[in-house]
Amino acid sequence: MATRRGEPVLPEMTDEQRAAALERAQLARRTRAEIKALLQTGSLTFADVLDRAAEDDLVAGTRVKAIVGAMPGMGKITTIRLLEEIGIAENRTLRGMTPRQTKELLERFS
Question: How many domains, in total, are found in the chain?
């Protein structure tokens, strides 16, 4: 595989590996979409999502911005302002939040 200098070299994958990776990616997207839909309807709370994240790596890898943005009453601008106020980077995942950040979001959405 010829590459230009500085470009990452992707590993060679078999068709089976490629299919398995595609399946994992689809499962992750479905799981995240399901959680966001449940949050929007109020069927799931922020605390429930954190409980799931403790047990499920797919949920733990979800960006905080996506979860907060799915909460009822939270638009794009309000979400960004809240994350800035608490000191959470836009690319932070649920797994990567500090205890203080977690506590502040739990208080906000309780």
Answer: 1
